[in-house]
Write a structure and sequence with these properties.
10 helices, 19 strands, about 30% strand, about 400 residues, 10-stranded mixed β-sheet, alpha+beta
C-alpha cells in the first residue's frame, strides 16, 4: 500500500530545497494536508492533438496515483465548465475551466502572503480546495473564507475539505465582489487572474493588510501583484514575479473568431514596425502590452496555404493591428479609433531604452478611481487605467 505521508514529506523536501517552502508552519501544513483528496473524482492529462486523457483514482495503480497527486504539475480537474474525469472513458477535447495548481505555485503564493497567527484570510477561487486546506491548517478554519463561482466545483471542494478534517464551507458566488460578510480581512489571495484588482477587495482589507493576485488577461505575460492597503483606502505595491492562472470566470476573454479579413478590411495606416511584433511571445513584453493596451488580444492564425498570421484586436473599440513579415522586418496595418500597435510599440521602445527591466520592477497603486502602473525613473513607462 502506498504511504501518502511519505509522498507529502517528499513534496515538502523538494519545495524546501527549491527555496519555496521556508516557514515551519507552512511546512507542517504541506506535510499534513492530503492533496489526493482534492483530486476527486479525477484529473485530465494533456495528450497530443489537443486532447485530454481522463485519469481517476479508481482503476489506477495506487503508486501511480500517488505519484501523480504529489507531482510538481498543475492537474486539470474540469473541462468546459462541467466535464469531470469520471464522466468519460476516452480522451476528449475541451477547455480547462478548473484545476489543482502545481504545489510549487500554491506554496510560493501562500509564503508571499506573509500571514501571522490570528490573521483572517479571504481566498478568491477555491478550486479543488487544496490551498484552502493549507490555510485552514495554518490559521484555523474559522479564519479562512473562500469564494468559488462554480457551484459544482464548490460542492466538490466542500466534500474534500470535510474529508481532510476541516469543517469549513465554500461561499458560492462572484469572487470579484469579495465576501463582505466576514470582512475586514488581514489578507486577500486570488487563485485566478483578474484584469485589475477589484476595489471591493481593497475595501474589505484592513489598513496594513495585503492583497496578492495575478493581474492581466492574456494566458501568459501576467504578473503577481502584491499590494498593501493604507489608512486612506488606497493600496500600494509592486509586481513580485511572473504568474499564470485561469482567468476569473466573469472576466474570461471571448476568443476572437469569424472572418478575420472582414475585421481588418479597412486600415487607416500602413507602416514598417520599429520592433518585431513576435517579441510579444516573451513574458515581459506581453506584460507591457497589456498595460499599454488593456483591451487588446493577441491572435494567431494562418492562411489557406499555412503561412502564419499575427493580429492584435480590441473588439470593444473596433480596433486592430495586422502584421506581415518575418525576422526583423515587419509591416503593420492599423485600423479603428485606437492605434493598438502604436501604444504597445512605444512601451516596448521605452522599455528597451530603460535597459529592459524585469517584471518585478513594475510598481502599482490602486485608488477608488484608477489603477496606476509605472517603472521608477522612467516617466514614459507609466500607465493609468481609469475605473468606470
Amino acid at each position: 500500500m502506498t504511504d501518502m505521508a511519505t509522498e507529502r514529506h517528499a513534496l515538502a523536501e523538494r519545495l524546501a530545497k527549491g527555496g519555496v517552502l521556508v516557514t515551519p508552519e507552512w511546512r507542517q501544513a504541506v506535510e499534513a494536508v492530503p492533496r489526493e483528496l482534492f483530486l476527486h473524482p479525477g484529473v485530465f492529462l494533456p495528450e497530443h492533438g489537443g486532447k485530454w486523457r481522463p485519469v481517476t483514482a479508481v482503476g489506477t495503480d495506487p503508486a501511480e496515483w500517488a505519484q501523480l497527486a504529489y507531482s510538481d504539475r498543475t492537474l486539470t480537474t474540469q473541462l468546459d465548465g462541467h466535464l469531470t474525469a469520471d464522466q468519460v472513458g476516452d480522451p476528449v477535447t475541451g477547455l480547462p475551466t478548473s484545476s489543482s495548481t502545481t504545489p510549487l505555485t500554491v506554496v510560493d503564493m501562500i509564503e508571499k502572503l506573509d500571514v501571522d497567527d490570528g490573521h483572517r484570510v479571504l481566498e478568491i477561487g477555491t478550486g479543488t480546495g487544496y490551498s484552502t486546506a493549507l490555510m485552514c491548517h495554518r490559521l484555523g478554519e474559522d479564519n479562512v473564507a473562500t469564494v468559488e463561482v462554480d457551484p459544482e466545483v464548490a460542492q466538490r471542494a466542500d466534500a474534500a475539505l470535510e474529508a481532510a478534517g476541516f469543517s469549513t464551507w465554500t461561499v458560492t458566488g462572484d469572487g470579484l465582489l469579495g465576501y463582505p460578510r466576514n470582512a475586514p480581512y488581514d489578507r486577500v489571495i486570488a487563485t485566478c487572474a483578474v484584469r485589475r484588482i477589484p476595489y471591493a477587495w481593497v475595501r474589505q482589507t484592513k489598513p496594513g493588510g495585503i492583497i496578492l493576485s495575478t493581474v492581466g488577461s492574456w494566458p501568459y505575460g501576467t504578473g503577481l501583484a502584491k499590494v498593501t492597503v493604507d489608512e486612506d483606502g488606497n493600496a500600494h505595491g509592486s509586481i513580485v514575479g511572473e504568474s499564470s492562472f485561469m482567468q476569473a470566470r466573469a472576466q474570461a476573454v471571448v476568443p476572437v473568431s469569424g472572418d478575420l479579413s472582414a475585421r481588418t478590411a479597412y486600415a487607416d495606416t500602413v507602416r514598417e514596425t520599429k520592433v518585431r511584433p513576435n517579441l510579444l511571445d516573451e513574458w515581459m513584453p506581453a506584460f507591457l502590452a497589456q498595460l499599454a493596451a488593456p483591451g487588446a488580444h493577441l491572435v494567431r492564425a494562418s492562411t489557406s496555404d499555412g503561412r502564419p498570421l499575427l493580429y492584435l484586436f480590441d473588439p470593444d473599440r473596433e480596433s486592430f493591428a495586422e502584421f506581415t513579415g518575418s525576422g526583423d522586418s515587419w509591416t503593420v496595418r492599423q485600423g479603428g479609433p485606437v492605434t493598438l500597435w502604436d501604444r504597445i510599440e512605444n512601451a516596448l521602445v521605452a522599455w528597451h531604452a530603460a535597459g529592459s527591466p524585469a517584471i518585478d520592477s513594475a510598481q502599482l497603486t490602486i485608488t477608488p478611481e484608477s489603477h496606476v502602473f509605472w517603472i521608477d525613473g522612467h516617466p514614459e513607462l507609466h500607465w493609468e487605467h481609469r475605473l468606470g
